[in-house]
Design a protein that fits this description.
Blueprint lengths: L2 E18 L4 E14 L4 E6 L10 H16 L7 H10 L5 H18 L4 H4 L6 E3 L2 E3 L4 H13 L4 E5 L4 H15 L4 E5 L6 H13 L4 E5 L7 H10 L4 E3 L6 H10 L4 E5 H4 L2 H14 L3 E4 L5 H13 L3 E5 L2 H4 L5 E3 L2 E3 L2 E3 L8 E4 L3 E2 L2
Parallel strand pairs: 5-6, 6-7, 7-8, 8-9, 9-10, 10-11, 11-12
Antiparallel strand pairs: 1-2, 1-17, 2-3, 4-15, 13-16, 14-15
Helix pairs in contact: 1-3, 2-3, 5-6, 7-8, 9-11
């Protein structure tokens, strides 16, 4: 199976409600789609969202990295040389992790199709079903309480609550969410780098003192401040998960070696795809550090790839793959089935994607 052509397109999918964090507010998913075509007729699919505030990858940057560097690196090569292909993609341009992730997952998709096996089984996984949390965007406490009631009524028992826009209100926000969710719901919070280390410890310990029972906090301090992250981890009553601090397997190793966080978050768009996600998971297995697998605000192709990784690695104990259920429609044919919190992986070869409705080609 030889790669003959790579085509690029875009999709636009409106969200059910605006997605608000300490870093950005978004009303629709606007993603770049990668199609790898082969001489057998098989097509591999990848996807990359522009999340400039987090990864630095805008739509223009993703398209430029693909057109100027990545596509020419893979065209004409044999799909069976997966290790060589993924290594070449990783090395052909620095950073640009979202563009690399889109190509990497499309290559894994084709490799699974070539060998007629789903990617999660190719990786040795036996889990077919996982359960995701759902995100509660940062708003006033009353709005967040209403969103919480809606999520609980839809069957969610784990909520990821965005905080950090106004630290003085964060405890009130969480109190409103906890009251609306009830005592049995799991609540994890995401500050998106919003706090200073001492401030984070004060806020988190106050939350626990008030009986809000926070499962863990995601990225309470700036991504580069590993010393600050370690400070919070050592002093907070709430376990700490590193997210924006983890862009590569080397980043994950450093955090594990420092003891800078209790858990690490794997996101394909930050680490560059399935290949590096597996390396982070392997390092976590060695250090005994549990992982969450998460997503940006993405449609189903890239989130589906993350599902395959989650189903293949037991060290992934936390699931934050709610992107598709936050969308008001699903233009992706095939792949995992997202039934609110319940996600069932596809047993079709590769990643199981069969096409994209409404795809606008860019070439």
């Amino acid at each position: 199976m030889k790669i003959t052509e790579v085509r690029l397109g875009r999709i636009s999918v409106p969200l059910r409600v605006p997605f608000k964090t300490a870093l950005r507010s978004v009303s629709s998913v606007e993603d770049v789609i990668v199609e790898i075509h082969t001489d057998t007729g098989a097509v591999g699919y990848g996807e990359a969202p522009p999340t400039g505030a987090i990864t630095g990858d805008t739509t223009g940057a993703i398209l430029g990295a693909l057109r100027d560097h990545i596509i020419k690196t893979v065209t004409g090569r044999e799909v069976d040389d997966l290790e060589g292909l993924t290594a070449a993609v990783d090395k052909c341009v620095v950073k640009n992790t979202s563009a690399k992730a889109a190509m990497d997952m499309a290559l894994w998709d084709l490799y699974g199709q070539l060998h007629k096996i789903p990617v999660y089984q190719l990786l040795g996984g036996g889990r077919k079903r996982i359960v995701t949390d759902i995100t509660i965007s940062v708003n006033d406490p009353e709005t967040m309480a209403r969103d919480t009631v809606n999520a609980v009524e839809r069957g969610y028992d784990t909520l990821k609550v965005k905080v950090g826009v106004d630290p003085a209100l964060d405890v009130a926000r969480l109190a409103a969410v906890r009251q609306a969710a009830g005592p049995d719901a799991r609540i994890r919070i995401d500050a998106n780098q919003a706090w200073q280390p001492k401030q984070a410890v004060r806020i988190l310990n106050r939350m626990q003192d008030k009986g809000l029972d926070i499962e863990f906090v995601e990225q309470p301090v700036k991504a580069h401040d590993l010393a600050g992250l370690k400070y919070v981890t050592e002093r907070s009553y709430v376990p700490v998960l590193a997210d924006e601090s983890v862009f590569s397997p080397a980043d994950a190793l450093t955090i594990m070696q420092m003891g800078a966080a209790d858990l690490v978050n794997i996101k394909l768009m930050k680490c560059g795809g399935i290949t590096n996600a597996l390396r982070i998971a392997s390092a976590a297995e060695v250090y005994g550090v549990e992982c969450m697998i998460g997503c940006m605000l993405e449609a189903k192709i890239s989130v589906n790839a993350a599902v395959h990784v989650a189903c293949a690695r037991q060290i992934v104990t936390k699931i934050d793959l709610d992107g598709p259920v936050l969308c008001s429609e699903d233009p992706i044919l095939g792949g995992a089935v997202f039934d609110e919190r319940n996600i069932t992986v596809s047993d079709d070869p590769g990643l199981g994607i069969h096409g994209v409705q409404g795809l606008v080609y860019l070439d």
